[in-house]
Design a protein that fits this description.
Blueprint lengths: L2 E5 L5 H10 L4 E4 L8 E6 L4 H10 L3 H9 L4 E4 L1 H6 E5 L11 E6 L9 E8 L3 E8 L3 E5 L4 E7 L4 E8 L2 E4 L10 H14 L1
Parallel strand pairs: 1-2, 1-3, 3-4, 4-12, 5-6
Antiparallel strand pairs: 6-9, 7-8, 10-11, 11-12
The chain binds glutamine.
Length: 197
């Protein structure tokens, strides 16, 4: 497999790089459009989606990435990265935008303020239980028919998806990169390898 990119403008870049390297993958930090040459997929980390959407513009990455993603380029967004991939963002800043790759509506900080961060076991379809670290996480409040729900969490008011996939775009409300569990990254890499075959 060619290198897998990690968007390295802002957020928990190093943790994603480490997780991917632990899975034996060559990783490229993506900061400029040129860095996209030769990468076969991209991870968009957690962090702050308002800042990330601004830096994607100033770095010149927004347009090339938008056409790659629209064309089926494999992407995995965690937390703020999920917000960047969503079709619709609630409680966003006025100038915030997203790639619209996954037909979901996310509410920023949608798990409440006081309990904005929590950890809970998450059952991933066909892959066992993984630790779910939620930090000011986006809540998926609407999901379209084409969205495959791989994991959900009931926060006391009904189950909401927390790991979803639409085609080659994957989104995760929690932070798999902050634990030693490699299940989510592994699933993404398997799909990526499949796409390249
Ligand atoms: N609340 C943050 C945002 O809106 C996301 C938090 C995170 O990535 N841990 O971007």
């Amino acid at each position: 497999m060619r290198a897998v990119g990690v968007l390295a403008l802002q957020g928990d870049v190093r943790e994603h790089v480490t997780t991917l390297e632990n899975l034996g993958v060559t990783v490229r930090r993506v900061r400029t459009p040129g860095d996209l040459n030769g990468v076969s997929g991209l991870v968009i980390p957690g962090g702050e989606s308002t800042t990330m959407s601004r830096l994607l513009m100033t770095s010149g990455l927004r347009e090339p990435l938008q056409s790659l993603i629209t064309g089926g380029f494999p992407v995995l967004g965690t937390c703020a990265g999920l917000i960047m991939l969503a079709r619709e963002v609630l409680d966003g800043r006025a100038d915030q935008w997203s790639f619209g790759a996954i037909d979901v509506t996310v509410r920023r900080n949608g798990y409440g303020r006081q309990i904005a961060s929590f950890e809970t076991p998450i059952d991933v379809l066909g892959s066992g239980t993984v630790p779910g670290v939620f930090i000011r996480a986006p809540r998926i409040v609407r999901w379209g028919e084409e969205v495959v729900v791989l994991a959900s969490h009931d926060h006391g008011d009904g189950a909401h998806p927390v790991l979803v996939r639409q085609g080659s775009a994957w989104g995760c409300s929690f932070h798999p990169e902050l634990t030693s569990d490699v299940t989510v990254h592994g699933l993404f890499l398997d799909a990526l390898a499949e796409a390249l075959r």
